[in-house]
Every structure is written in C-alpha cells, then in structure tokens.
Specification:
It contains 16 helices and 17 strands. α6 packs across α12.
Length: 455
C-alpha cells in the first residue's frame, strides 16, 4: 500500500521546510520531495493533505502502568491498554519506558504489535539499593550483583538499563561498564551519585532536570529544610541560570554527549496541588488511575477546603506559605531557564513526561511538556526536535524521529503550525504509525467503551 502526504510545511526532525510531498511504501518513507514543482502521479495511493507534517512524537520517560479497582477479573492489563490508546491518540508513536515489570513490558509490546500501539523501548526493573521506592526494583548492593543483574536484563530483552537514586558511584560505574560490554546504555535517576559524577561515569542520560543540582551544591544548607518536590524547587531558587556553575555543568554534559530528559511538567505538578486538581484532561486519566475521579470534587475553594487533608494524606503536596510559594515559583522559572541554557550549550535533550504521575495524563502531557520547554526559552523547532530526532538519537536509532527516505513511516499531521504556536501540536489531523493511518475515532471509541465499562 502506498501513502502520499502533501503538506504546506514539513519538519523533518531537524529543520522546517516549505511545501513537501512524503511518499510511504509499506512501513517506510521512500521519498521526500520539497517544493511546489510537478510531481509524478502515484496510481492507487491513499492521499492525505495537511498544513504541517512532522515525525511521530517520542515520549522519552514514561512508566506504562495503571491499576484496576477491586479484583482484576480477567482484565489485569486494562489500564495499560488505555495508557497506550491515549499515547497513540496524541501522536506519540514511540515511548521509552524507564522502569517497569518485565511482564508488563512483554504485554505492551505484544499489544502494540497487534493493535497499532506505540513501539516501546524499555529498561525493565530498576537497579537500586534499599530502601526501595518501587516494587519492580532489583537490589544491587555490590558490583558483582550489579554486573549479574545487567546481564540478566539484557538476556530478558530490555533495551537499556535504569539506575535509580540510591546507587552510589562505585556501583553505577560497574553498571555502566557491564552495560557497555553488552552494547546497551544506562539511564540514571540520581541522588546518591551526583549528576556530574554520573555523566563522568558514562551514563547515556540523566532523568529529571530537577536532579542536576541538589543541596550538596549549596554547603551549609539544612537538607531537611529542602526535602520533597517543593523543597527541591525552593532550592532551585538559589540556582542562577547564568552562573558559571550552570555554564560549567552544561559544558561538561555537552562535551560527553550526556542527554538530559527534563520532565518539567511532573516537577511543576508535584509543587502545586491546585494544578493537579485542575488538570484539563483529568477525565482521560480516570481510565488509567481511577482515583483521579475524586480530584474534580476538590475544584473550587469550598471543595479544596473540604478535601485538602484527605488529598494530602495520599498525595503529599502541602500548602506552602506565601513566602515559600514565591520561592517555588522562582525555582521553577530557574529550572526552565537552565534547561534552555543546556540546549543553547549543545546538551542533547529528550522530552519526557513521567506519566502516569498524578495528573500527568499519558499522551496529552507530552504536548504540555513541550509548551513548558518553549516557555523556558527554547525555540519551537528545537522543542520539536527534543520530542522526535533527539529521543531517536538517545535510542541510537537513525530510522526514527525523522522524515526522510528509509526512515520508519511514523508521522504526525497537523492542522496548525507549531513553530508559530507550540500548542498547535494538538491540532491533530492524522497519525501515521509504521505506514498505517491510525483510525483515531476507533481508538477513541475503544477508550470510551473501556472507561464506561470499567474494562
């Protein structure tokens, strides 16, 4: 089957050009012709027209998960399927799952292959040291065990390795060495090891820009006074985006080609309970995490006054004082600005969301993440690259995240131009995955059926 796409403007993964025709045969792009000159007829081809064409989006940091209230009753992976549907509806054709159970990864790959879901690159279980945060973690107390766990994950078919917060430098170094011997990369969510130490040890990516600086960067501060997401944001109020320290960090990361996955949206949400409750796509989130149905009851001053204590019991987002709120807002502004400085210095970025954290709605949240990157000062074209060719480079896949001959035919077709307004990434005309036009109405109908039936 041949597919021909004519667009007024094309973002090929690195730059925007004028009118173009993209020809697809099977699951690959076979030709890209720029300009408005005569084009040969293609008999029997399916045709699409749009204002703006670009590669399918890649969310570089998700955990494909959810839960079923009560007994699963034969549908243990129901929320996972809804998660995948929300991704493809929003033009996300590839994801990087940065921590999950092996069984879940195997299921989502199988489901995606059969039903046109996004392709999934996965780390599988996290490597960490107690006290553990996530039940899908594997304990790596010493280098020998760390090496064995890396080998096992590779044998189990995982695409990369994820080191978590309690792993110290000596263990992380072993993880990186063992992964390199097997031709795979390491992602790191750091705490016991600093971001700079992790980069020097050779990790491929640093997850969460919030972790680039911590209390160790400010000797004399009481760590207890800056704990939790709000405390970390207040700490960032002390980071000058134009300081020599930021410039030095950016230079080192760029020099080693260490990727940063900023996940700005989840950082913002964990600092602001009102934003969590007033997420505009909350209804979609109910299918993945049913407790979100109660968030709507907290909207408005009366609802929040009644429900705040119960909310804080399960999702600890305390109400800051006026002075603390000002510090948090300033810290978040600095964080956004630092990410922009990283980009300007040549640090490779890969946009990600950390869905499904509270109110981080699969699919929709990547568009919101891109808006925050623009808000921080990154040019729209660079932001588009951070959600297409950037993640493809992170995955070492030159056939993803680009529109060119030989690339996999994953495309997002839009009715608006996101280089004029980044919000236009949500003006979706069509989604193409592996050369097949996704029936978005059918996917949405299946999602709604699942939501109504609880299956």
């Amino acid at each position: 089957m041949t597919l021909v796409i004519d667009c007024e403007r094309l973002f090929d993964g690195t730059r925007v050009t004028g009118p173009a025709r993209v020809t697809v045969e099977g699951d690959r792009v076979t030709a890209v012709v720029n300009g408005t000159g005569p084009r040969p007829a293609v008999d029997g081809a399916e045709r699409l027209r749009c204002r703006f064409a670009m590669p399918g989006l890649i969310d570089s940091h998700v955990h494909i998960a959810g839960y079923v209230e009560g007994s699963p009753a034969g549908v243990p992976f129901k929320p996972v399927k809804d998660f995948l549907r929300l991704l493809i509806l929003n033009g996300i054709t590839t994801v990087r799952d940065t921590g999950n159970a092996i069984e879940t990864i195997r299921y989502v790959r199988d489901w995606g292959d059969r039903f046109g879901g996004p392709r999934v690159f996965a780390a599988g279980p996290l490597l960490d040291i107690p006290p553990l945060v996530w039940p899908f973690s594997r304990i790596v107390r010493d280098p020998a065990v760390a090496r064995r766990e890396v080998e096992l994950l590779h044998l189990e078919g995982m695409d990369f390795v994820k080191s978590y917060r309690n792993v110290p430098p000596n263990i992380l170094g072993t993880i990186v060495d063992a992964a390199r011997e097997r031709g795979v990369d390491v992602a790191a969510d750091v705490r016991a090891t600093t971001a700079l130490e992790a980069s020097r040890l050779g990790v491929r990516s640093l997850e969460h820009a919030m972790n680039l600086f911590d209390e160790r960067s400010f000797p004399g501060l009481d760590p207890a006074a800056f704990s939790g997401p709000q405390g970390r944001a207040r700490l960032w109020a002390r980071v000058d985006p134009d300081s020599p320290e930021v410039a030095a960090l950016a230079s080192e990361l760029a020099g080693r080609g260490t990727f940063v996955c900023p996940t700005l949206l989840v950082t913002h949400r964990w600092c602001d309970m009102d934003a969590m409750v007033n997420e505009p796509y909350l209804d979609y989130m109910v299918a993945v995490m049913p407790y979100h149905q109660h968030f709507k009851r907290l909207r408005g001053s009366l609802g929040m006054a009644i429900g705040r204590k119960l909310f804080e019991r399960y999702i600890p987002v305390p109400k800051p004082s006026k002075a603390e709120k000002a510090e948090i807002d300033e810290g978040l502004r600095h964080l956004r600005a630092v990410v922009s400085r990283l980009h300007a210095a040549g640090v490779p970025l890969a946009a990600g969301t950390d869905a499904p954290n509270p109110s981080i709605v699969p699919g929709f949240s990547l568009h919101q993440e891109m808006a925050l990157l623009v808000q921080g000062g990154m040019p729209p074209e660079a932001v588009l690259a951070s959600a297409t060719s950037g993640p493809a480079d992170l995955l070492r896949r030159d056939d993803l995240g680009r529109v060119r001959a030989g690339a996999l035919a994953d495309l997002l077709l839009l009715d608006g131009d996101p280089t004029i307004d980044i919000a236009n990434t949500m003006e979706i005309h069509a989604v193409v995955k592996s050369g097949r036009v996704i029936d978005r109405e059918h996917v949405l109908a299946k999602f709604r059926e699942s939501l109504e039936n609880g299956r």
